[in-house]
Amino acid sequence: MIISTIQKISLFILSFCGLSITHRLANILAIILFSRKSKKYIVAQKNLKACFPNKSKEWINQIAKDSLKEYTKSLLEAPFLYRVSQKNISSLINKVHNEQVIDECEKQNKGIIFMTPHHGSWELSGLFVASKIKTFSMFKPLRNEVINDFVYKGRAAQGATLVETNNSGVKALLRALKNNFGIGILPDHTPKLNQGVMSRFYGVPVNTATLIHKLGKKNKVPIVYIFAERLSGFRGFDLHLGIIDKKVYELSEFESADILNEKIEYLVNKNISQYLWSYERFRNRTGVSENIYN
Fold it and tell me: Which of 11, 26, 201, 294 has its CA 20 to 30 A from that of 149?
């Protein structure tokens, strides 16, 4: 009871702390929480070594540290983003690149699939999309009940509907597309063993989900990628949007996965340190004997 009360108070206070406060605090906490012996730092380092084998040890270490700072910012800024987005989401955004693609895709009356990787502020990406079109997204309940309820309500701040990560959730996403609504999917989520297809991410074998391909193939639903880049100096965010060529639906699931991973690489290269390198993306791989996390 006491712990949950403290958590609620902390989340409430953070919701009124601007980016200048949350980002400064995140820089400090990241140093305290994520030493070079911490699991997340080790995972980030191993992922970076695998994806950028020609980079120096100093570069790898620096990006790993910077990435963990960005990850901590994404956690601490979320309550503020949830609160402010309800009143004036545009106040958080410096510039939107290719914003017109949403209107262009909506006119096709096929719904829209939004793919948002674990890059930059994926929370803001979801809030922005939901402010433009009725959106449905999958939500996996968090273990902490207080944080779970807070995140659930926060992600629904712009009217988004959250569905379960199961077959009923998939059916809800299909219904949303039929009604010309948007659906949000994290394309770099690691599927369970034998539930995805093997592709490559920065040349490294990776198990890749096929949900985007399966949901959109029948009606060739437009796929829009979005990345909310966190700007320095607490200046908010730049949003980068674009469309995946519909030829992706004429390819096999394997070839389609390659295209989507190439697009994720394109987005990551815009700001490498803002990618979630501490996530064990190279797990559950078939045909690959090496486990880089051992």
Answer: 26
Q: Which of 83, 74, 81, 184 is nearest to 129 (CA)?
A: 184
pTM of model > 0.85: yes
Domain that holds residue 175: 2-274
pLDDT of residue 211: 96
How does strand 237-244 pair with strand 135-138? Answer: unpaired
Residue 212 main-chain phi, psi, to 5 deg? -60, -45
Instruction: From residue 259, give the alpha-carbon distance in Å to each of 168, 188, 208, 244, 248.
Output: 28, 12, 11, 9, 7
Counting the structural domains of the chain, the total is 1
Q: How far is CA 73 from the centre of its chain?
A: 14
> Does 287 map to a domain?
no
User: What is the C-alpha separation between 186 and 7, in angstroms, rounded?
Assistant: 27
155 in a structural domain: yes
Q: pLDDT class for 3, splitting at 50, 70, 90?
A: confident
Torsion sign over Cα 37, 271, 183, 250: negative
Strand 182-185 and strand 135-138: the pairing is: parallel
DSSP per-residue letters across 192-208: PTTSSEEEEETTEEEEE
Question: Which amino acid belongs to residue 173?
Answer: L
Please check the confidence at residue 90 and state whether its pLDDT lies above 90.
Answer: yes
